Amino acid sequence: MSDFAAHAERIRAVPDWPEPGVTFRDITPLLADAAGLAATIDALTEVASGWGPIDTVVGIEARGFVLAPPVALRLGAGFVPVRKAGKLPAPTESRTYDLEYGSATVEVHRDAIAPGDRVLIMDDVLATGGTIAAARDLVTSLGGVVVGELVLLELPALGGRERLASDTPLAALVTYG
Ligand SMILES: O=P(O)(O)OC[C@H]1O[C@H](OP(=O)(O)OP(=O)(O)O)[C@H](O)[C@@H]1O
Ligand SMILES: Nc1ncnc2[nH]cnc12
């Protein structure tokens, strides 16, 4: 975790994107740097390692897809995608929710998570918490047990942590604002 802090300054703030008033936190410069990428995956894995056995890491499209599979590999867990609507071919569960900008519907394959599976939910950003709340709802509706929620960065001003409040651990490597 301490090594990650030295790399976090590569996360770029883009004002007024994708719409006026939003400061977009762009993680692409962090991930483009070899040492930054390694430190990010190391730090995320270190946090999740403290949460007990994990069968499945759920990553949320699109930016969660970048972070979840390498962490799943390190944990010896499988990877399950939560995708935007209309992309998964087999029967799905779906949820619709609001974002800081706009709204979205996400889906998961019904057979991707078995009752009792211990599931880690991962994404890049926690803002309003709507995306992780939807993913949590999808996992629990299939009988999965959410063992933790893990993001690279949190925007506390948008209230996601309060919205998601539960006994489940919620961790971010860095917070802004
Ligand atoms: O806490 P919330 O308010 O739900 O916001 C966080 C979500 O917003 C972004 O997703 P976006 O739909 O912009 O998609 P992308 O990953 O496809 O770029 C981000 O990647 C998170 O998934
Ligand atoms: N401000 C922001 N920057 C990057 N990703 C986001 N997802 C939701 N809000 C965001």
TrEMBL record:
Q: Which family does it belong to?
A: Belongs to the purine/pyrimidine phosphoribosyltransferase family.
**What is a single molecular function from GO for this protein?**
adenine binding
Pathway(s) it belongs to: Purine metabolism; AMP biosynthesis via salvage pathway; AMP from adenine: step 1/1
Which InterPro entries does UniProt cross-reference here?
Ade_phspho_trans, PRTase-like, PRTase_dom, UPRTase/APRTase
Q: Does the keyword Cytoplasm belong to this entry?
A: yes
GO cellular component terms attached to this protein's record: cytoplasm
Subcellular location(s) of the protein: Cytoplasm
Q: Which domain of life is it from?
A: Bacteria
In this chain the Phosphoribosyltransferase domain maps to 31-154
Glycosyltransferase is among the record's keywords: yes
Q: CDD domains this protein is in?
A: PRTases_typeI
Main EC class the enzyme belongs to: transferase
Please write the reaction equations for the catalytic activity of this protein. Answer: AMP + diphosphate = 5-phospho-alpha-D-ribose 1-diphosphate + adenine
Q: Which GO terms describe its biological process?
A: adenine salvage; AMP salvage; purine ribonucleoside salvage
Q: Which Pfam families match?
A: Pribosyltran
Which controlled-vocabulary keywords does the entry list? Cytoplasm, Glycosyltransferase, Purine salvage, Transferase
Q: Where is the signal peptide?
A: none
- The name of this protein is Adenine phosphoribosyltransferase
E.C. no: 2.4.2.7
Quaternary structure? Homodimer.
* Gene3D superfamilies for this protein: 3.40.50.2020
What role does this protein play?
Catalyzes a salvage reaction resulting in the formation of AMP, that is energically less costly than de novo synthesis.
